[in-house]
Amino acid sequence: MMFDKVEEYKAMIKAAEAKAADDLEQFRMKFISKKSVVTALFNDFKNVPNDQKKAFGQALNELKTLAQDKFKSLAETLDNGSSESASQGVDLTLPDIPNQNGSVHPLTITRNKIIEIFERMGFNVASGPEIEEDFYNFTALNFPENHPAREMQDTFFIEKNPDKVLRTHTSNVQIRMMEEGKPPFRSIMPGRVYRNEAISARAHCFFHQVEGLYVDKNVGFKDLKQTVYHFVKEMFGENTKVRFRPSYFPFTEPSAEIDISCFICQGKGCNVCKYTNWVEIAGSGMVDPNVLANCGIDPEEYTGFAFGMGIERIAMLKYQINDLRLFSENDVRFLRQFQGSF
Ligand code: PHE
Fold it and tell me: Global pTM?
């Protein structure tokens, strides 16, 4: 009877498998621990008739060794991560989790493209402070003392007397450049600007500009036109038309606003061009002689042109985005659409 049990356990031990750590633990509990069936048999030893004690003792020791050897080999198989045990509960046919790569922001893509086009024409890139003294944002740019753009509804004032403002355009960089250096200047100035406007699909309290400045001997309006023509064709395509519309800026004379033919509807009429077939992309003009003089440059010797465009506006046209707010909401559903663009 007792011998039968030993045989039965031997068979169970030989057949045992461990596919996971749990199985191994169960084996240990059943055949090796203090509460194991093997221990139970040892405890029963005293009930074995004397003449069988020797044989039974031998059988029990064999059983114990068998259990220990088997435990070792099961543990080793598990450690080696046999393919069967490692894949337990894992569906190897599931597709991989795709790489969540970030994407370049559409404003950065557009800015880089603008910079690239102007760099090829020999412009370099300049930058300046966003918190600016009134002098660089307004006075040096020929803004009269009572000009409405200085008033609270347009400008964020940081400090009063002397005034510090969040710059309302990147023209401050032009002044700083001209003040510090000597002509010729051929630079563009990309950067963030601020205006105190109610936030809507078409206006925001901050946006980005690229301004350009070219000052040298004999720079004329023709140079401005040719530069803009080249830029527009590179940016929007060979067939895009350009028109200069007379305008006014305190710091340029003459001044012109630059429109391009609506490349979204190609003349058919749409919401973006409000059925006029023209969309405005920039302000421009010949640098006012007063501005040159304010920066210590002789306006009799040097002339220059300047222009300024909104990066958001160019990006909205190029990617047909209809709400300015999308650029700053960080909605990945929007941003992801620019994956793969640079
Ligand atoms: N500074 C002007 C603006 O922010 C743009 C501009 C720049 C116009 C240079 C003419 C020349 O609106």
Answer: 0.71
